[in-house]
Each structure stands twice: as C-alpha cells, then as structure tokens.
Amino acid sequence: MSLREQGITKLKDFTENHLSNYAKSRNFDYGPDKRDNVSNLSKYITHRIIDEQEVIRTAHSKFAYIKIEKFIQEVFWRTYWKGWLEMRPKVWTSYIEDLKQLEKQKDTVEYQQAITGKTSIECFNDWANELVKYNYLHNHARMWFASIWIFTLKLPWQLGADFFLKHLLDGDAASNTLSWRWVAGLQTKGKNYLATKFNINTFSAKKYEVLKLNDQASPLFETTSFEIQPLHFDKVENDNSLFLLHNLDSNFLQKFQNKYNHFALLDFNSILESKNYSKQVLDFKSSINEELIGQLKTNFNSDLVIKNEKDLLQIIKDKNIKNIITPYINCGYENDFMNEIRKKIKITYLARDYDQLCYPFATKGFFGFKEQIPKILSKIL
Fold first, then answer.
1. Quick one: 67 and 100 in the same domain?
2. Closest by Cα among 164, 130, 168 to 146
C-alpha cells in the first residue's frame, strides 16, 4: 500500500468512525497505543500526501460544518500558521539566527537532560522519550511539554522548537515555530500558556502524583517587531520547462495536469541531514521520495533527481531549460536552500489556489482568520 493509499484509508476510517466524537475527545492524550480520538493524519498533510482541501471535503461530505466545526478549524490552523509566517518571514530568519547563538547551550547538562528524558519531571520525561521513539506527540502534550521546557526548566524556546522540528514526522516550520512562540507568550503578546498539574492529570491517561511546575510564570518578551510583507505569487511560463516535484507537496501532479517538458525530483534530505534531523524523519521523507520517483518514471519517463545546485545546473545545460517550476515552498530549511539557488537561477514557485485563497486572511490572530472560514469553504467545497 502506497503512502497516499495509507493516508486516504486513515482519512476514510477517521471520517466514518471517529470524526463525530472528535470535538469531545480530541483533548485527551491516551498515549501512543490509543490514538483513535484524533485523526492521525498530520504526517500525511504536512507532506501533502493528502492535502487540506481533500481532508476538508471528505469530512464535510459526511457531516454538516456545524457538527465538525472544531475539526475543520484544526485543519485550518495549519493553513493559518503557514500564511502568517509567509507574510512575516523574518520570524523564521530570526529564529534561525537565535539557534546559531544558542548552539553551545546544547552542551549543557540541563539541555541534555531535557532531550533524553532525564529531568526531575516524570511527565516531561515520558513525552521526551515518546517523541524520540514514535516521532509524534499528542497536541495537548506538545503544549504541556513546551510550557514546562520554557517556564519550569527555563530553557530557550528556540531549542525546544528545534528539538520538535527535527523529531516530528509531521514537523512543519510554521506550525512548530509559531506554536512554541504562542506557548511562550510571544505570538499573542502577553498571553502565555502554562501547564498545570490539574490539566495534565485531567487529560492524560497516566496520572502524575508529584508535579512541581512553574504555573505562575510571566510570558516572555521580545523587542523585535515583525512587519507584514506583501504576499507574492509567481506567474508560470511553461516554455521548455523543468518541473521539480518535492515531498512537501507530494500529490501536486495528481491535482494539476499542466504541460511541462521535463520532470525531476527535488530531494532535500541531504539539506535536512546537515541540520541533524532524526533518522526516522529522514527515512520517512526518503520513503516519500522513492514513491515520487516511481511516479515520475511511470508517468513521465524521468529518473532525474536534484540534490544540490550543481545537479540543477547540469540538467539546465543538458536539457536547455528556460523555465523551472516547483510547487510553492513555504518558510523552512528547504526554502532557505532554494532561496540561495534562486539568487542565481530563476525558479518559479507555483502556489495552489487553496493557499492563494487562504493566506491573505492570516494577517492578524486566528480569530480573524476563523471568521473567514465559511467564506473559504464556499469556494473550496
């Protein structure tokens, strides 16, 4: 069974058997052996093995919006975060610069205890070990973990976000970075999220008797302000074109049948490996790449793989390429890599209609975006 078939099967099973109870049960973390109260679709959506629009349509085909409003909103949260960060890319570049400055802190005892699950906080240790073993955490556990990391262990939020991004199979630069900022009180300024013993024990399968948490901490503060930059979506020219497929938008060619002259896979794994992504995450992305290569061979008789600028320049020369097109790449390490190449070579980012429709609504907080969801649904259903 292909990864897309797996994703579609999970989507159908969740929609048929668990979606109706999602709003009531979604906040409970029953542990890695019982996840039927959540969709388990995040790793597929992150890589658009299945995409947001078909998830929303499948859910809506079974239930009216009012019945599944909470689930639809959760799907749109990911879209909102992406749009918000696209208009404020300096938040990402600032985060990357912070990580460089904090690199030496990874050698401290406190940091090493945190990432290996050897702190004095039992629940935190459980989640750290679960993350490394399964490359997933329940969303509620992610919030608790981040809160304890920042306010009880007093570790830099950037290092926690880095730990998550490189171990989560559903790791997404926008959702991850901005969620950690939200917990810290930077995203919604002055409003931080504080994990409490009561909340953890109410919503966890395992009960923790001794939990000494800093549940009175003040939010973090930053002096930097990040101004909105206007969104820009490229126009596509297909003359003697090279289409670069990648695993951040894995079903793109199944959705769009534009005519391109040449096709290749854009493989980011060497870039992510240099950033110390976990082996499990790299292996998962490699498995997606293998399936994409199979699709390119079957549908377009191509086995071209591009891993660096040298590979791309060689193909441009060999094929006399005039236009290079790739599915839109959002803020993240992959986009950082591509931006360096785009300084020398014109590469067109082809954005989906869904993203072009949704991103402009992400100018402020999610509440304002949420008000636009009915309007968005009227256009995509």
1. no
2. 164
